[in-house]
Amino acid sequence: MRKAVITGRQQGGAIDVPTPTAKEDWVLVKVHTAPLCTEYKSFLSGEPSAFLGHEAAGEVVEVAQPGRWQVGDRVVVMPQNPCGICPLCLAGDYIHCQDGVDFAAFHGSNEGRATMAQYLLKQGRQLVPIPDGMSYDHAAMACCGLGPTFGALERVSAGVLDTILITGLGPVGLGGVINATYRGARVIGVESNPWRAERARELGAEAVIDPTADNALEQILAHTHAGRGVDHAIDCSGVAPAHRLCIDATRRKGTVSFVGESGRNPTELFVSGDMIRKGLTLHGSWHYNLADTPHILRVIAANGDKIDRLISHRFALDDVQAAWETQVNGQCAKMLLKPWEPNR
Ligand SMILES: [Zn+2]
Ligand SMILES: [Zn+2]
Predict the structure, then answer these.
(1) N or C: more exposed end of the chain, with fewer CB within 10 A?
(2) Is pLDDT of 142 > 70?
(3) Contact 54, 79 (CB under 8 A)
(4) How far is the CA of 109 from the centre of ligand 2 (A)?
(5) pLDDT higher than 90, residue 343
């Protein structure tokens, strides 16, 4: 099979590797869509990587034993290979599992672990059925396209009375605009990239504020009830100034969800002013609970036109170099790799 690799600084491509085979309750999935996510960071830094991607939708093509899946079933592939039996896994919060399965030890090789490939091997319990009539491309938005912000909005029970701030309108933040507007909430976005700001307005953001403006905070507050601040803020940028903006722009007793990864970069927090006196609830939100998969698929089904705007580009697997170059220039929303489509 073909799969994507990063070989050096801004150097990527596709190579041939052995196709994995189904084993025990792990099934073989033919990948029809593999959304691009954070892999471009390795493409930029030049860190070689042969196992790329954690998002996919595809078709079950081989099973090793009778189970819940049959050849021909259409599935969304959930990330990671969690243990399935710890309290977090049993509660559906598998994303936080500390006892994940060692793929190479189980399979004898890491081949089949990556989603940016023609086939992958996956535990049956990490697959979700795609509703009839929904395309693989749309269903794949149940991964990081809509997933992280769905989890954050679900956690705060965001609804029609809420004004929601979303900082960072890359693919994850744009997915947040879809999730929040579907719930009837007003959305104020923060983004300096004009292409992405425009896309956010198309998806339903009421206003998009440029964070480089001196009065960005005042501009946000001007859109909120009595200027008191938004009800919930979600940071999808992962940068400290945006974290600060979320905290400062949220009303007393509001909530702030940190979704964008920030590595080991610190963010200044004033426990007294921000949390005790202001009464904010601050939390991190990585993904969403497995039990919510039917709900997120309903969001996708109900927002077909917006999902078509969220997906900005499709590339063949062998064109992955061009895909990453496009992703790096920032003139894009969610991008898809298509492992079975011919090159341009
Ligand atoms: Zn677990
Ligand atoms: Zn992702």
Answers:
(1) C
(2) yes
(3) yes
(4) 23
(5) no
90 alpha carbon, closest ligand: 1
Q: Measure 288 CA to ligand 1 centroid, in angstroms.
A: 15
CA 144 to centroid of ligand 2, rounded, Å: 4
Tokens of 86: 């710890």
Taking the centre of ligand 1 as the mean of its atom positions, its distance from the CA of residue 142, in whole angstroms, is 21
Residue with tokens 């909120």: 224
Which of 258, 186, 257, 273 is closest to 225 using CA atoms?
A: 186
Q: How far is the CA of 143 from the centre of ligand 2 (A)?
A: 6
For residue 104, the one-letter residue type is: A
Residues 88 and 184 placed together within one structural domain of the fold: no
Residue 277's φ and ψ, nearest 5 degrees, are: -75, -40
User: What own/partner pairs with CB < 8 Å and gap ≥ 24 does 213-222 have?
Assistant: 216/190, 216/245, 217/245, 217/248, 217/249, 220/165, 220/188, 220/190, 220/245, 220/249, 221/249
Say yes or no: 252 and 156 in one domain.
yes
Dist CA 44 CA 10 (whole Å): 5
Is residue 136 within 8 Å of residue 130, measured between CB atoms? yes
Task: Give the number of whichever ligand sits closest to the CA of residue 56.
Answer: 2
Whose tokens are 């992405």? That residue is: 196
Statement: residue 256 has pLDDT above 80: yes
Please calculate the CA angle 127-149-56 and round it to the nearest 5 degrees. 30
The total number of structural domains in the chain stands at 2
Instruction: Please check whether residues 96 and 33 belong to one and the same domain.
Output: yes
The domain of 224 spans: 148-284
Task: Note the pLDDT tens digit of each residue in 224-255.
Answer: 999 999 999 999 999 999 999 999 999 999 99
Which of the four pLDDT bands, split at 50, 70 and 90, describes residue 81?
very high
Ligand 2 center–CA 146 separation, angstroms: 10
Distance, CA 311 to ligand 2 centroid (Å)?
14
- How much is the mean pLDDT over the chain? 97
- Residues 290-308: tens digit of each pLDDT: 999 999 999 999 999 999 9
Mean pLDDT of 202-218: 98
